[in-house]
Each structure stands twice: as structure tokens, then as C-alpha cells.
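Hi everyone, sorry if this is the wrong subforum. Our group has a chain we'd like a structural model of before ordering constructs, and none of us has done structure prediction before. Sequence below.
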Amino acid sequence: MEDKLASAPGPDALARVMDGTTWAEFCDGLKAAGQVVLDPAAPATPLDRAEGYRYLTRLLRSALETFIEDADPGAPELLRTCHETIKMGADNPDNHYQNAPINGRYEYRITGTRGTVHYLGFGTQEGNYGATGSLDTSGYLDDSALALNADGSFEIHLSCEPRPGNWLKMTPKSRTLVVRQTFLDRKTEQKAELRIERLGERHAPRPLSVQALDRGLIGSTRFVAGCAQLFHKWAQGFAERPNQLPLFDPKIATAAGGVPHIAYYHGYWRLAPDEALVIEATPPD
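Answer:
Right subforum, don't worry. Here is the predicted structure as C-alpha cells:
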């Protein structure tokens, strides 16, 4: 049976790809996204400008992997689209991130082994930074509630309706699975080994179609612009309270894909050449 999701978007995708409109709009969208680097509120040193444009190239690499190479929720794969050389915004350098496309119309199963990494968490998210400006968390499950087999293996069921055992909630709008593995010591800890599969009727990854390319390039430019603008706006807000470290609004953090039970603190710092930043903290029990 043909997957109805494969037919979107509209019937003009063929014409748009064949006459070059899709590619032209993709290039124009990237050019427009670059204006965030030139915003008067953005830092304007040569190094900051260079890093700003490199940031956009990193977002583009992530977007192309997400919206073109691994965009099929019917045959999802876990990929790393945020890592050492693809920084997105507020991502943790101690985390090993993985993402996969999902859709609330389907059900999925994650299988794997726990490993010894300090923290392991799974979340489902609605929307994306480009299309909706947010990544609302629709379900979350971490290792504190994860039932393991004697050998450390496990499976998790992803669905809109509750399932027995390890269950990760989805909603009809869920579109992304995110996995976070947090290390305390990368030299000694072993990461979890994971696999995701769609349940029910299965199909192999589809050959690239003009519809998929049109949708993927549009989504990529929207992601680059939307993600860059979101975190630029955050930085502007942090700058209003320089040299402070206030608690970030939990609702905003969760809407941007944050972990519901993690407290986030953000700050903007102005330091003289002879000053250093020192943060003292007392972790909770």
C-alpha cells in the first residue's frame, strides 16, 4: 500500500524541480538566512562574523541530513545531526545526541543495550525550528524509569496510545525522536547501542522523489533561518541581564526541545581583558 505521506507536498513539485525553482528558492533562502549574522545586535568582530557564518553552514549540514537524507518516518534511522562540529544552540558538549524521523500515525520500537553511560534519555518532539519555531516535547522517558533485562538489553514502544512495559508517548503531531546520552567520563563509559524500527507494515527507504527533494530543500532553509533566529533572539534576551546566571523559563526550554526535568541557566558575559569568568555551584542531592 502506498504511504500517503509520500505524496506531499503539492502537485507542482515536479515543475518546480524541473525548471530549477526549487533550487533557486533554496539558494535565496540561505542568502536571506545570512542576515542574522549582520544584525546590528550581533557581535561584529571579524572572529564573530566568521563564526556566525560557520554556524549557518553547520545548521545547513544538520538540515540536509534531517530533511533529505533521513526524512522518511516509515524507515527511520538514528543519526547524529548535532555533535562536535555541528553546534545548534544550548546543546550539551557532554551529550551524545541522536535523532530519527517519526510520525504519530505510526508505531515504533527501540531496541538496544544500556551500556554504562551516566544518563540515557528518550524524547518525542512536535514541529521543528523552521516550520513551527519550536520543538515541543510530547513525551519523555529516561533511564530512571527504564526496565532492563538481566543482560542490560531493553526495548521501548513508541505510540500515541499507552503500551505495557517501557512506553514513550507520542502524539499525532510527533515528528522527531531525540536521544540524549550524557557522559561524565567518555574514556571509561560505554554508550548505549540503539536501533529503531517501524512496527506494522514496513517498507524499504524510498528512492528520492521530486516531492521529497522539494520538501526537503524548503525544510532545510527554513530550519537554518528559524534555528539561527531563535538562538539569536535568546542571546539578545540574555544580554539584557549581563554577568548574571538566572534560571531559564522552563516553559520556553521545553518548547525548544529541552528535557522537562532539567533546570537550565543561561547568561551573557562581558569581561575585560584582565577578567575571568568563575561560576560556583552547589549541585542538589
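For your construct planning: Confidence is low (pLDDT under 50) at residues 1-9. Residues 1-72+206-240 form one domain.
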